[in-house]
C-alpha cells in the first residue's frame, strides 16, 4: 500500500536510497561505538553523519517508505523540502561535532550517546506521520538526557530537570496527536493540514513550546547546556530546539499570530538574559532561546517568505551556534575557566579560536556578509510586509542586544588586555581547528552567496533580497547601536556577579512546595483512612470473637430487662431456625443479584 507523501511529488526513488532510513545508519554506528577503538569509532561517526548530509542532498523529493507501525499506516521516512534541509544540516554539523569530540578527548561512550541523539533527531525530521514523529521525539529526549548524564556531577541534577521538562512537553504533544487521530482518522501528515484547530492545536503548541524554549518554559535550557562535557554541549545546542521548530512548522503550516508574537518575546527575553550572564556557555544557551525565537516568529507569520526565512535561520543558526560552543569549549578545555570576568587576552594564546569566534559572533549578530544577516533579514522583512510592527521592532531590538552580547563575550574572553596572562596555554587541537574553521568557512560562504542556500529552502525565497541598500544599512545601524550600547552599559554589566534570577527562581520553589503539600496531603489522608479502616476492622473482629458485650449494650439500649441474661449459652437456636435464617440470607442475596 502506498501512502501519499507530504511532498508535492510522489516519486519513489531507487531502492538503494530507500532501503535503510539514514537515522538507522547513525543509530547502528552509535550502538557499535562502545565496542570499537576510539579512532575507528569516531571515524565511522564522521563517515555516517557526513553520508547523511550527502544522502539528504541527493535523494529525490517525494521519496518515502510506507510501513505499518503499531497497527497503523505510517511513513518511516519522507523527503520533502523541510526534511531535506534538516537532514543536510543535521548530518553536516554532526560530522564536524564528532571530529571536534574526538579532538576534545570525548569518550566513545559519550560520542555514542551523541550519535544516538543525532539518529533519533533524524528519525523525527524524516518522519512522514505524527506517530513516527512522536516516537522518535520521545527517543530524542531519552538519548539527549543520557548524553547530559554521562558527564556526572552537576550534569546529573540538570539532566533530571531536563528529562522532567521534556517528558511533560512530550506528553502534551502526544495528547495533541492522539486527538488529531480521533478527529481525522489518520496519523499521516497528508491527512490534514497540520494539527486540527482548538484544544489539539493548543496542546501541540505548548508541548512543542517546551522544546523550542517558549518564555516561561525555557529554564531547562540555560540550566542544562553549560553542565556536560564541552563536546556534548556542541551536540545539545543543535538538535532539540531545531527539531522543535520543525515540529512547529508541521503543526502550524499556515502560521498563527500568537506564535509569531511568542517568537518575538523569546528573541527579546533570551537576549536580555544573555547580556546579563558571565558564564560563557550559559550566555550561549540563552542565545539559543533568542535565536530560536526568530525561527518561531517566522513560522508564526506563516507566509512563504517567512517560512523560507525561518528554515534559512535554522540552517544558519546551527552553523554559528555550534561554532560558538566549539570556541567556548576550547577556552574551557585550555584554561579551565568559564567565567568571563576571569578571562581576557586569549587572542594571542588561541589565535585561530579567536578568529573562529569572531566569524561566529558576526554571523549570529547579523552583520552584513555573514549568514545570520541573510536569514534574520528574511524574517524581519516578512514581519514588515505583513504589517506586524510589534514583531518587527522587537526582533530589531533583539538584534541590537545580540551585538552587545557578543561584543561583551569577545571583549572579555579574547581582546581585553587583562592583568592575567596565559603563557602556557596549549593551542586548540588540530581536529578542533579543522572543525571550527570548516564551519566558520560555511558561515562566510552562505553569507556571501545566499543563493546556495535558497535552492534547498522550503517556502519561497524569491522575495529575499539581502543585499539591498536599506537592508545593509539596517545591519550596520544595528551594529553601531550594539557598540554604543555596550560602551554605555559596560560598567553596570561588569558589576553583575553570579547567576541572574530567571523564571526558575519562582517555578522551582512553587514546584517544590506544591509537590510537598500534595505528598503530605495524600499521606495524611491515607493515614486517616487507614486508622478508620483499622479501627473498624478491630471492632468487627472483636465483636465476632466475643459478641456478648455488644449484644448486651444493644439490648440495654432498648430495655434493661434481660440484658444481663445475655451470655454464653443464651443465644441458642433450633436447627429449623438456623435453616430459615440461611434461606433468608441466600434469598436476599439472590434478589440483589437479579435486581
TrEMBL record:
The chain crosses the membrane at residues 16-36, 43-61, 81-100, 112-128, 163-182, 194-217, 255-276, 292-312, 318-336, 348-370, 390-414, 434-457, 469-489, 575-594. It is a multi-pass membrane protein. Its main location: membrane. Coiled coil: none annotated. Residues 127-388 form the NADH:quinone oxidoreductase/Mrp antiporter transmembrane domain. GO terms for molecular function: oxidoreductase activity. Keywords: Cell membrane, Membrane, Oxidoreductase, Transmembrane, Transmembrane helix. InterPro entries: ComplexI-like_HydComp (IPR052175), ND/Mrp_TM (IPR001750). One of its GO terms (cellular component) is plasma membrane. It is found in: Cell membrane. The keyword DNA damage does not apply. NCBIfam families: PRK12668.1. This is Na(+)/H(+) antiporter subunit D. It comes from Halopelagius fulvigenes.
Amino acid at each position: 500500500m502506498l501512502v501519499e507523501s507530504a511532498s508535492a511529488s510522489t516519486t519513489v526513488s531507487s531502492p538503494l536510497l530507500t532501503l535503510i532510513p539514514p537515522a538507522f545508519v547513525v543509530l547502528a554506528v552509535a550502538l557499535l561505538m562502545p565496542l570499537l577503538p576510539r579512532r575507528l569509532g569516531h571515524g565511522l561517526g564522521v563517515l555516517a553523519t557526513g553520508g547523511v548530509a550527502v544522502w539528504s542532498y541527493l535523494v529525490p523529493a517525494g521519496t518515502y517508505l510506507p510501513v505499518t507501525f503499531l497497527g497503523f499506516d505510517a511513513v518511516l521516512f519522507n523527503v520533502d523540502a523541510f526534511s531535506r534541509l534538516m537532514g543536510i544540516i543535521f548530518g553536516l554539523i554532526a560530522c564536524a561535532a564528532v571530529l571536534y569530540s574526538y579532538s576534545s578527548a570525548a569518550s566513545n561512550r559519550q560520542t555514542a550517546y551523541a550519535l544516538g541523539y543525532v539518529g533519533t533527531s533524524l528519525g523525527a525530521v524524516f518522519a512522514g506521520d505524527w506517530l513516527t514523529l512522536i516516537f522518535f521525539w520521545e527517543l530524542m529526549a531519552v538519548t539527549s538526557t543520557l548524553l547530559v548524564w554521562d558527564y556526572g556531577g552537576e550534569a546529573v541534577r540538570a539532566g533530571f530537570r531536563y528529562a522532567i521538562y521534556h517528558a511533560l512537553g512530550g506528553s502534551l504533544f502526544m495528547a495533541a496527536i492522539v486527538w488529531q487521530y480521533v478527529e481525522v482518522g489518520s496519523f499521516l501528515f497528508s491527512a490534514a493540514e497540520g494539527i486540527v484547530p482548538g484544544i489539539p492545536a493548543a496542546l501541540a503548541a505548548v508541548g512543542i513550546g517546551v522544546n523550542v524554549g517558549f518564555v516561561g518554559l525555557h529554564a531547562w535550557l540555560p540550566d542544562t547546556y553549560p553542565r556536560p562535557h564541552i563536546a556534548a554541549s556542541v551536540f545539545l545546542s543543535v538538535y532539540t530546539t531545531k527539531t522543535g521548530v520543525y515540529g512547529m512548522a508541521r503543526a502550524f503550516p499556515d502560521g498563527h499570530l500568537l506564535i509569531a508574537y511568542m517568537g518575538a518575546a523569546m528573541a527579546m527575553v533570551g537576549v536580555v538574559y544573555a547580556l546579563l550572564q558571565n558564564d560563557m556557555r550559559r550566555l550561549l544557551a540563552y542565545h539559543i532561546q533568542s535565536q530560536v525565537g526568530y525561527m518561531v516568529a517566522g513560522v508564526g507569520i506563516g507566509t512563504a517568505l517567512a517560512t523560507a526565512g525561518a528554515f534559512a535561520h535554522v540552517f544558519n543558526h546551527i552553523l554559528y551556534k555550534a561554532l560558538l560552543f566549539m570556541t567556548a569549549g576550547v577556552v574551557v578545555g585550555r584554561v579551565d575557566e568559564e567565567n568571563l570576568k576571569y578571562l581576557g587576552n586569549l587572542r594571542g594564546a588561541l589565535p585561530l579560536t579567536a578568529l573562529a569566534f569572531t566569524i561566529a559572533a558576526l554571523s549570529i549578530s547579523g552583520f552584513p556578509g555573514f549568514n545570520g544577516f541573510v536569514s534574520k533579514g528574511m524574517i524581519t522583512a516578512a514581519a514588515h510586509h505583513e504589517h506586524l510592527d510589534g514583531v518587527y521592532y522587537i526582533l530589531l531590538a533583539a538584534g541590537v542586544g545580540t551585538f552587545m552580547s557578543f561584543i561583551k563575550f569577545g571583549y572579555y574572553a579574547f581582546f581585553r588586555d587583562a592583568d592575567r596572562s596565559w603563557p602556557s596555554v596549549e593551542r586548540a587541537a588540530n581536529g578542533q581547528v579543522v572543525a571550527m574553521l570548516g564551519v566558520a568557512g560555511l558561515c562566510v560562504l552562505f553569507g556571501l552567496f545566499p543563493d546556495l542556500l535558497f535552492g534547498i529552502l522550503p517556502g519561497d525565497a524569491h522575495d529575499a533580497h539581502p543585499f539591498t541598500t536599506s537592508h545593509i544599512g539596517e545591519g550596520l545601524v544595528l551594529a553601531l547601536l550594539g557598540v554604543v550600547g555596550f560602551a554605555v552599559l559596560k560598567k553596570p554589566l561588569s558589576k553583575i556577579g553570579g547567576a541572574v534570577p530567571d523564571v526558575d527562581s519562582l517555578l522551582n520553589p512553587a514546584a517544590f512546595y506544591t509537590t510537598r503539600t500534595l505528598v503530605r496531603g495524600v499521606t495524611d489522608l491515607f493515614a486517616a483512612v487507614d486508622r478508620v479502616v483499622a479501627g473498624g476492622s478491630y471492632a468487627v473482629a472483636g465483636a465476632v470473637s466475643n459478641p456478648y458485650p455488644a449484644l448486651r449494650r444493644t439490648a440495654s439500649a432498648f430495655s434493661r430487662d434481660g440484658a444481663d441474661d445475655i451470655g454464653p449459652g443464651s443465644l441458642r437456636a433450633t436447627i429449623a431456625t438456623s435453616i430459615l435464617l440461611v434461606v433468608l440470607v441466600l434469598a436476599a442475596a439472590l434478589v440483589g443479584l437479579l435486581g
